[in-house]
Amino acid sequence: MQPNYGLLNEPNGFCYYNDKYHLFYQWFLFGAVHGMKHWYHLTSADLVDWQEEGVALIPEFLHESHGIFSGTGLVKDNQLYLFYTRNHRDEKWQRRSSQCLAILSSDGKIEKLAEPVISGPPQQHTHNFRDLKVFKKGNHYYMLVGA
What we know:
The protein is mostly beta strands and about 150 residues long. About 0% of the residues lie in helices and about 55% in strands. A hairpin with a 5-residue loop joins strand 7 (about 95-105) and strand 8 (about 110).
């Protein structure tokens, strides 16, 4: 599978949900170059044939003004939780990353939380704080974030 146009970048949120495999990838629609990333959504019943579901996550808030970066998918309570990194640059071009959440419900609608789950990196860490992985081990959930 390849996009009809634009840049296909890193896969994200790969999981099995509602009797289908879901795969998202970073997508820049304005050319085969790196730019403001969106997430594009594909589904498959067999991991061979894939259907395009369209754009899943679009940068729309100020704190994601420079794209939606990598993340992960986690199924819980019949919903698919999509955790991702929002990227914003200020007037001096300094990065301000935050960790965010969108929820895909069983009826196929995606709702993004307006505010980040984690608004910035821990003290004394770079704002190149991104590409999270969320998982469950036992009765606890964990989030790993690169910094």
